[in-house]
Write a structure and sequence with these properties.
Elements (H helix, E strand, L loop, with lengths): L1 E5 L2 E5 L3 E6 L7 H6 L2 E4 L3 E7 L4 E8 L5 H6 L11 E5 L3 H17 L19 E5 L2 E5 L3 E6 L5 H5 L3 E4 L3 E7 L7 E7 L14 E4 L8 H9 L5 H6 L14 H14 L5 H16 L5 H12 L3
Antiparallel strand pairs: 1-2, 2-3, 3-4, 5-6, 6-7, 8-9, 9-10, 10-11, 12-13, 13-14
Helix pairs in contact: 7-8, 7-9, 8-9
């Protein structure tokens, strides 16, 4: 067994799983503290590394794509303080960290874990029920139903629409984006068959986030919901042939216009072309080139040609 104990947290590896317990140091983010202990099975790992530093280094786990609903929900946008798979290691414990890395890598080789994408979640995600109050509202999730309640910071028209309650089975997607700079973040729930959504400030199915301390906790809600929705791999498998063949596109809003415009020029019966355009838009959105609003608008333009 390998173990490393730091103020930032404790990691233990028993040959089958890495057990992560967050520390109580001031540098440990509220998300990690609230999430609590995480057990990562060996088959969920794609790799491990240690980045040494003069005063402190960082131990990192890399999970297989699609293995963890939290990483699926946050898409690489978690701040370091909130990342449960990164551990700050003081310089005098660098040797222990390197030994830990060697033990995990040896087990990955012995078990022949390929590190590629997976078709199901290998981690359970945050525990439910979970309730988080942040930004302009409070979200509660009991494992089946999601409820949204608004507070005094909510925009008037959104407030007048009242609270919302719906089930996981009603959802098409869940999106979480943190606040960055002067741009607010959001947690948005998109219902199947719903029309294009307005900006999160006015969307009664979205909580707007302002960058305060509790905002990252909304990522836990997103992950808990995603863990109970069909896995992305299952959704991809359900898409007709032709979806996988994406075409290169320009960046930003121009990309959305170019893709949607090209779809408008295509005959309505040319589904392969339209499917390629949808794939193109989805990749631009996932990579952060398109905002949620730009993606929704362009996607509706494409769908209108089917």
């Amino acid at each position: 067994m390998a173990e490393i104990i730091q103020k930032d947290g404790n990691w233990t590896f028993d040959g089958d799983a890495v057990r992560i317990v967050p520390g109580r140091d001031k540098g440990v983010g509220l998300l990690r503290q609230t999430l609590g202990e995480v057990v990562v099975p060996l088959r969920a790992l794609a790799g491990i590394s240690f980045e040494p530093g003069r005063r402190a280094g960082r131990l990192r786990l890399r999970l297989r794509e699609g293995a963890d609903p939290l990483l699926q929900a946050t898409g690489g946008r978690l701040a370091t303080a909130s990342d449960p798979y990164a551990l700050t290691v003081l310089a005098d414990r660098a040797g222990v960290a390197e030994y830990f890395v060697d033990e995990v890598r040896a087990a990955l080789l012995l078990d022949r874990v390929d590190g590629g994408p997976v078709g199901e979640y290998l981690l359970a995600g945050p525990a439910v029920p979970v309730t988080v109050g942040a930004g302009d509202g409070t979200v509660s999730f009991d494992g089946d139903r999601i409820a949204l309640e608004w507070n005094w910071k909510t925009e008037e028209s959104k407030q007048s629409a009242g609270s919302r309650e719906f089930r996981v089975g009603d959802l098409r997607s869940v999106e979480w984006f943190p606040a960055a700079g002067i741009e607010n973040g959001y947690l948005r729930f998109a219902l199947t068959g719903a029309p294009p959504a307005p900006a999160p400030k006015y969307d009664s199915y979205a909580v707007e986030l302002f960058g305060f301390k509790k905002d990252p906790l909304m990522a836990l809600v997103a992950a808990a919901v995603l863990a109970r929705m069909p896995h992305p791999a299952a959704q991809r498998d359900a898409v007709p042939a032709g979806w996988e063949k994406a075409l290169p596109a320009p960046a930003g809003a121009a990309a959305a216009g170019a893709a949607a415009g090209a779809a408008g020029a295509a005959p309505a019966e040319d589904h392969d072309v339209l499917l390629r355009r949808l794939r193109e838009l989805a990749e631009l959105h996932q990579s952060g080139v398109l905002t949620a609003e730009e993606f929704t608008t362009a996607k509706q333009a494409v769908l209108g040609r089917f």
